[in-house]
Please model this.
Amino acid sequence: MAEHARHRPFSVRRIPGFTAIASLCFVLLYAPIITLVIYSFNDGESVALWEGFSWRWYESAWDNIQVQEATVRSLVIATLASGIATVVATMAAIGTTRTGAFPGRLAIYAIINQPLMVPEIVTAVALLIVFAMIKVATGYSGLAYLVAAHAAFCVPFAYLPIRARLEGMDLAYETAAADLYATPWRTFRHVTLPLMAPGIVAGAMLAFVVSLDDVVITEFVKSAGQDTLPTYMLGQLRRAVTPEVNAISTALLAVTVLLVSAFFVLSRQRR
Amino acid sequence: MTAADPARQAQPAHSPSPGEVASRAAEVRRNWLLSTPALTLLFLAASGPLLVVILYSVLTPGEYSGVVWELSGDAWYRVILHRDIFDDTVSLADAHLRIFWRSAKLSLLTTFVALIIGFPTAYFVATRPPQQRTLWLFLITIPFWTNLLIRTFAIMEVIRNEGIVNSTLMSLGVIEAPIQLLYTDTAVLIGMVYVYLPLMVLPLYASMERLDFRLVEAAYDLYATRLQVLRRVIIPLVKPGIIAGSILVFIPSLGAYVTPRVLGGGKNMMLGNLIELQFGQGRNWPLGAALSLTLLVIVMIALLVYVRNVSRSESRG
Model:
C-alpha cells in the first residue's frame, strides 16, 4: 500500500481500497450468473461437475410441453400488459408534463407510482382477495386477471421513461405546427408522437421485461394451470433441481440482456 | 439546471384575463381526462384492492379459505398475541415475533452490507472518465433487470454444498467438509444483498456524479486526511443518495418473498412467507390481511422518514 502511494501521483479523486472493493463487487455481481450460464451447457446431470458441452438441456426444455405452454402464456401476458400499460402511461405522461402545476397533479403521480412503493407481496395479497371474489361472482377464471394485474404494475415503468422524454422536448415544434393551422390531432399525430416515440418504445420495453420477470404477483393471482415461465421455475425449485431450469434461465437472461441493451441505446439517443 | 428555462422566465407579470382563466381550466380538464385511463387501471388492480384488504383484516376466517362476513378483531389481535386454545391464557405470539425480528434484522443487515459494498462501487463508477461511465453503469443495470428468481437461483447454485464456493474451498484445503450455507439465515442475507445491490448503487451514483471535486481539493489543501475528507466532505454531500439507496434496499428486503423461500428453505421464514402461509396452509385470510397491512405501515413509515430527510437536506443545500 505504502509503496503504491509513493509511485502514484496524488489524485483528489482516489480513495485507497475503493477500486479494490468496486472490482470485487463487479466480479461478485457476475460470477453467479456466468456460472449459471456455463452449467446450462453441461452434458451431465450435475449442476456442479462439468462433463462436457452439450445442448441437451435446451433440447429437453424445448420439448417439455409445460415449458412450451408457460412460455407462450408469459409472452401473451407480457405483450398485452405492456401494450395496455404503454397506452395509458403515454396518455398520462402527456397530461402531466409541460403544463405547469395543477390541482391534483401530485395525487396523480402518487397513484401512478404506487406499485413502486407498496411491497409486491401486499399487492399480491390484495389482488388475490379481490380476484377471488370476482371469480366466485362471475365464474370467469381466465387470463384477464393476470393481464390486468401485470398491466397495473407495469404502468410506472412505462410512464417514467415517456415522461423523461417529454420533459426534454421543446414546445416550439407543436406551437409552430399550430401556427401553420394544423389541427390539434394532426399536430399530435405528425409532430408530438414522432418526437416522443423513443420514450414510448423504451417504456414499452421496460414494461415488457418487468411483466416477463414477475413472480410474486403472478404466483398469487394465477388460477390452477396458469403457470408463467417464472412461476413454473419456482415450482420446479421446490422439487429436485435439474439443469433444465438453468437452460430456461439462460434463455430468459438472453432476452432481458437484449431488451435492456436496446433500451440503453434508445434512451441515449439525442436529437 | 444551470441553463435558464425560457418558459419559466416568461411568466406573466399581469393578472390573468378571463380568457386565460378559461383556457387554463380547459387544460386542467384535459390533463385529468388524459390521466383517467391510467388512474382507473391502477385503482382497479392496485389501490382499490388495498382497501378491501383493510376490510378483510377485520372479518372472521372461513373454514377452508376466504372469510365469513362477521366482524372480528381477532386477526389484529393474533398478529402479536397468542391465545391458548385449551386454557385461554394469553401470551405473546413467539413464532410471529421471531419472524418479525428476523425480517427486521435481515433487512437492516442487507441494507448495511449493500451500503458498504455499494458506496465504493458507486464512487468508482462516478470517478471514471465520462465516456466510460455509461459502460460501468450498464454493467450495474444488467443484473438489476435480470429476473430476481434467476439471480436467486444463481446464488443457490453457487453456495450449495456441491456448489462452486464449497468445492473451491475444499480443493484448496481450507475446509474438509462442505459448509452448510444453503437454507440458513446467512444464505438469505447473501441472496438479498446480491439481488438488491444495484438498487443501492444507482441512487448513490446519481448523487456522486454531481459531486463537486473542487470541495474535496479544498479540503486536501487545508491539510485534511483522506479519512477526514471522506467523513466530513464526501459523505455529507452524497447523503441524499445514501438515504435513497438505503430506502430502496430496505423496503423490498422487508417484503422479500422469493429469496427467503428459495434460499431459506421452509424454516427460515420472513414476513412475506408468513403472509403467504396464511393464504395457503394456514387458511387464515384475515390474519394474512392484517399481517400485510402491518408490513405496509412499516414501509410507509420508512418512506415518510425518507421524504422528511430529503426535504431537510434539500432546504439546507
